[in-house]
Design brief:
Distance between the termini: 110 Å
Number of strands: 5
Order of helices and strands: HHHHEHEHEHEHEHHHHHH
Strand order of the largest sheet: 2-1-3-4-5
Structural class: alpha/beta
Length: 332
């Protein structure tokens, strides 16, 4: 015969923690059940039995629906871009914050800005939950901490001139929401919430909410698929059109491109040629006079000014080539 001993304090604590854990799990499961991006598609329940070509056709068809979902949010996207450009024109910075795939997409978009638009270090930055290592290795639990987002932004000395874009397919990721709430309420920064579910907490927390509803995924809950594609398209718009507004382009030419390798040096010469129609020897001379700065070289050739004058006119025009050209042609 055996008798059970009365529960100890440790046993009670363990039981309490288990109940609390079960409660949190149940709450999260209920949240996921309401998300479009997490919905189960019964018609695809046997997709693994189909020929590879048929699966590829289905997946391609799913991807083709994403642009229409983005199009439905274009007015909100445009409003966010105008607000971001206004802050950045005054010296503000742009931060993307997110976890997992969303965080990686933010880091990717930010990392493309220096070579494409010659942004200065720190002007556009991707902040991912779990730190740089999370780009290549999953950091479990990092997305669950709004406090970590606050610490990450505080380390960057966020100000009211800056913009924080929170990215989360579900729109409920604590890290992204924590970043946006802290930026808006504590720092007075401009905030944008990008999600793929309607009525998301992230969009509600931000000044500019963008909700690109792409529907359930091919693989249930795999938001690196349609949701990830939608986020990539929107981030492309946010950075590219903001840089157009900041004068980083001349027409559709990347006149602020940073020529850091042979391909980009060749591209620089081609951009100057397309913008000016000048012969090769004049292009080479102009680029040599401006230490390879494409925008300055174009101004030399089209405005008939020397290198120092081109630099002065561009500085006075805050980097806008068209405005600098008007000033150059107006000179006696």
């Amino acid at each position: 015969m055996t008798t059970s001993k009365p529960p100890t304090n440790a046993d009670s604590a363990h039981t309490g923690n288990a109940h609390a854990g079960n409660g949190r799990y149940e709450q999260l499961r209920q949240q996921l059940d309401t998300l479009t991006t997490e919905a189960f598609r019964s018609e695809l329940a046997e997709i693994d039995q189909l020929p590879t070509l048929e699966i590829a056709k289905i997946m391609n068809g799913e991807d083709s629906t994403v642009p229409a979902a983005v199009a439905a949010q274009l007015p909100r996207i445009a409003a966010a871009i105008d607000a971001i450009a206004e802050r950045m024109a005054g010296g503000g910075r742009l931060f993307y914050t997110g976890a997992g795939t969303a965080g990686r997409l933010g880091v990717l978009d930010a990392s493309e800005c220096p070579p494409t638009f010659n942004t200065v270090p720190g002007q556009v930055t991707g902040v991912i939950a779990g730190g740089p290592g999370a780009m290549v290795t999953s950091v479990e639990g990092a997305e669950d901490s709004p406090e970590a987002a606050v610490a990450d932004l505080d380390a960057l000395k966020l100000t009211a001139d800056d913009t924080v874009v929170g990215i989360s397919a579900s729109g409920r990721t604590p890290y992204a929401i924590g970043a946006v709430e802290h930026a808006r309420r504590t720092c007075g920064a401009l905030t944008v919430g990008l999600s793929c579910n309607a009525g998301s907490a992230l969009a509600a927390a931000a000044e500019h909410g963008i909700e690109v509803v792409v529907g359930p995924e091919l693989l249930t809950g795999s938001t690196r698929l349609k949701a990830g594609t939608a986020q990539k398209l929107v981030l492309n718009m946010l950075s590219t059109i903001t840089m157009i507004r900041l004068g980083k382009t001349y027409g559709n030419l990347m006149v602020d491109v940073r020529a850091s390798n042979e391909k980009l040096r060749a591209r620089s010469r081609r951009i100057v040629a397309l913008a000016t129609g000048a012969p090769d020897e004049e292009i080479e001379a102009a680029l040599a006079a401006t230490d390879g700065e494409v925008k300055n070289a174009i101004l030399i050739l089209l405005g008939d000014v020397d290198g120092p004058t081109a630099a002065r006119l561009l500085a006075a025009a805050q980097g806008h080539l068209r405005a600098a050209l008007k000033s150059a042609t107006a000179q006696p």
